[in-house]
# Entry
Amino acid sequence: MSNMPKQPVFDGHNDVLLKLWKYADHEDAVSQFIAGCAGHIDVPRSQKGGFAGGFFAIYVPSPDLGIDMDVDMIKAAYELPLPSPVEYQDALPIALSQAAILLEMERQGAVKICHQVSDIRNAHKAGVMAAIMHMEGAEAIAADLEALDVFYAAGLRSLGPVWSRPTIFGEGVPFRFPSDGDIGEGLTDVGGALVRKCNELGVLVDLSHLNEKGFWDVAEISDAPLVATHSNACSISLQARNLTDAQLKAIGDSKGMVGLNFATAFLRPDGKMLRETPLSDMLAHLDHMIAMCGEDHVGLGSDFDGATVPVGITDVAGLPRLVQAMRDHGYSTTRIDKLCFENWMSVLERTWK
Ligand SMILES: [Zn+2]
# Structure
């Protein structure tokens, strides 16, 4: 590894809040995040890896379906059953609890919750992790959309209308290989209203997990850049969660953004969720997404703490190995800085109010 200064990484997706929410004592969970804890991300390893922050997802887990993703997703072909919808009254307390954990993280000095790009740059200068409060699946918002105002006041600046299961707003894609995302119906009327309200507030609308009809509905309704925070290219890994070339081109045309998902099942041409996945598979997706979107509209969206990532990275402390792989692949310093940090800043400038 070279002696070059550490490349900062701003990242499109993590599931740290879900990880900490599973602890019995949330205040103690945050203390452990600061001291060092299990999983992919904590403060000491973030400093080691140059992790400057990213999108922290509020996510309401589905009840256990009795399926083992690690077993099913190493088969030659698979279609995991979609969990049933989660009702608003069941989702809301969990979403509030995870939002409260992010607020507690800020109180203990682990993160700064950012509403402006200048907040992110200032946090980075101060050596504090920058956090965007994101909601993955909007079950905690009812059809009247009032809860969106409350979450916005608490700091929410990014929202995906669906995780993979259906909501009142639209339909997501199942974990299915080989398959593109053209599964099911598009946005509902209230889904359209949600997108318009997000536009008014300057809340980023995340397209990752939406099915293809829903994607094109958002493209038509939204006046903001199109953003898929953590998705890859169908033409390399034909995953329902990945994007077709037409979708990638639309993202580029809108001056939007796609974040490279590190989940090995979405990287590998054979769709298998295996740790033993070479970093060259990540570079193949980056090359292709840059060819489709342009190098100003591609970044990283790790899915740390939510997926199996390549053994060559292992956790957030391994990010410099990805940066080195980009250098070895011939990417310039400028391109690497765009992919790892600056492109997210630019698209947030174009999206937030
Ligand atoms: Zn996700």
